[in-house]
Write a structure and sequence with these properties.
383 residues, alpha+beta, Rossmann fold, D-amino Acid Aminotransferase, Chain A, domain 1, 3 domains, 9-stranded antiparallel sheet
Length: 383
C-alpha cells in the first residue's frame, strides 16, 4: 500500500489529470505532473510540474524517481519510454495495457482473441488496398485510423462509392481498421476499478449520447433493463481482469436493437462518461483511481441520485468573426437547483475544445436529462 503523504505522478496535464490531482490531494497525496507544455490545467492544482517531451527519457526518469507511483491521464503517451518507468518505479495501469488500448487494431484484435463480444472489423495495413477492406466489411461501415484516435477523430463513415473514395484519400498510407456499421439502440459505458490484489468494483452503467462523435450527455443510471445492466457490468469486470488492469478501465459498448452488447472501445483511465460520479456517487471515479493504484480499499460506488452530465465545449461561447464575443451564461447553471458546474482552467475557448462540464441531479433519469438539455440551451443563450 502507498499511504497518503506520498507522491503520485501523472503523465499528461489535461482536465482528467486536473480532476485526478484534486481527488488525490483531498485524501492527502502530493501530485507531480509531467506534461510537454507548461501551464497545463493539471499543473494549476499540482504541487510540481515537469515540462519535457514524453520521449525525453532522462527527464522522465527524474520525474519517476520522485514519485511513489505513476499513472497517465490519456492514451497518447509513447509506450517505449514507459518501459524504463517500471524498471525504477511503479506504473499503473501497466505499459502493456496502454499499448493495447492506444491502438484500435491491437485493441480489437485482443478483444477477438479473448472471446469478448465486439464490433466486426477487418485490418488494413499501411499501403494495402483500403478498397478491399471496405469490400470485405461491406457498406455501411466505419473506417478508423489504427493509432491514437478517440471521440470521433480519425474516422469516417462509408456508405457508397463516393464516400469510399473520400476515405481512401483521407486514410492513404495509414494503418486502418474497417468496422461494420452497427445499428444500436443506445451507447453505454461501464467504468470499473481493479486493484493489484484483484478486487473489482464497477460504477453504475452510464448511457451516453454523442454529437458529431463527441460525448454530449451521460445519464446514470442508464435507462436499460436489469438483465442488460448486469451483463454490461460483468463484461467490463471480465475485461479488466483479463487485461490485469490496476486502476480504472472504461469500457464503451453498443446495445444493439437485438439486445446484444458489443464492445466499442477501451480506455485505461478516468473517462468523460464517469464525470457524473463526482456529484452523484459516494466515491468519484478519480478518487477510485487513486485508491486502486495506491492499493487502498476501493470505495463505495453507490449512486446517490439519478444524474445527467453535459460536456461544455467551446461552442458554448458566443463567437463573431472567429473571435469570442461573449462568455456562456454561467448563471443559468449556477442558480439551478441540484446542478454543479466544473470548469477546467483552460486558457482560452476554441471550437471543439472541452472547457468543462456540468451535472444535474433529479428524482429520475429522464427528468435529469430533460433538465440538462434545458440548462445546456440556456448556457449558450439558445433558449
Amino acid at each position: 500500500m502507498i499511504p497518503p503523504g506520498q507522491t503520485i505522478g501523472i503523465l499528461g496535464g489535461g482536465e482528467l489529470g486536473r480532476m485526478l490531482a484534486h481527488a488525490a490531494e483531498r485524501i492527502g497525496y502530493r501530485v507531480h505532473v509531467f506534461e510537454p507544455a507548461a501551464g497545463s490545467p493539471a499543473a494549476e492544482v499540482a504541487a510540481r510540474e515537469f515540462n519535457a517531451p514524453f520521449t525525453q527519457v532522462d527527464a522522465l526518469s527524474t520525474f519517476v524517481k520522485g514519485c511513489a507511483v505513476v499513472t497517465y491521464e490519456f492514451e497518447n503517451v509513447p509506450v517505449e519510454p514507459l518501459w524504463s518507468i517500471e524498471k525504477i518505479g511503479q506504473l499503473h495501469p501497466h505499459w502493456n495495457v496502454l499499448e493495447i488500448c492506444q491502438n484500435r487494431m491491437r485493441e480489437k484484435t485482443w478483444l477477438r482473441k479473448n472471446g469478448f463480444p465486439h464490433v466486426p472489423f477487418t485490418e488494413v495495413e499501411a499501403g494495402d488496398d483500403l478498397h478491399a477492406g471496405i469490400r470485405r466489411m461491406g457498406t455501411p461501415c466505419i473506417v478508423k485510423t489504427a493509432d491514437f484516435g478517440s471521440e470521433g477523430k480519425g474516422q469516417m463513415k462509408v456508405t457508397d462509392a463516393v464516400t469510399a473514395e473520400h476515405a481512401v484519400a483521407a486514410f492513404a498510407k495509414q494503418r486502418a481498421v474497417v468496422e461494420k456499421y452497427v445499428d444500436f439502440k443506445c451507447e453505454l459505458s461501464v467504468i470499473v476499478a481493479r486493484t493489484e490484489a484483484g478486487d473489482l468494483r464497477a460504477f453504475p452503467v452510464a448511457e451516453n449520447i454523442h454529437t458529431k462523435g463527441v460525448l454530449d450527455f451521460s445519464i446514470a443510471p442508464a435507462r436499460i433493463s436489469d438483465v442488460v445492466r448486469v451483463e454490461a457490468e460483468n463484461l467490463a469486470k471480465a475485461i479488466a481482469a483479463k487485461l490485469n488492469v490496476v486502476g480504472l478501465l472504461a469500457v464503451e459498448m453498443f446495445l444493439t436493437d437485438r439486445g446484444e452488447i458489443l464492445v466499442n472501445e477501451l480506455a485505461p483511465r478516468p473517462h468523460d462518461s464517469g464525470h457524473y460520479t463526482i456529484d452523484a456517487c459516494v466515491t468519484s471515479q478519480f478518487e477510485q483511481h487513486v485508491r486502486a493504484i495506491c492499493g487502498l480499499p476501493l470505495g463505495d460506488v453507490s449512486l446517490s441520485s439519478p444524474v445527467a452530465m453535459v460536456n461544455i465545449l467551446g461552442e458554448a461561447w458566443k463567437w463573431r468573426e472567429g473571435q469570442v464575443a461573449a462568455p456562456p451564461n454561467w448563471a443559468a447553471v449556477l442558480e439551478a437547483p441540484r446542478a454543479k458546474l466544473h470548469l477546467y482552467g483552460k486558457a482560452e475557448p476554441k471550437i471543439g475544445r472541452k472547457m468543462g462540464h456540468f451535472t444535474v441531479c433529479a428524482d429520475d433519469a429522464n427528468r435529469a436529462l430533460d433538465n440538462a438539455r434545458e440548462l445546456k440551451a440556456k448556457l449558450s443563450g439558445r433558449s
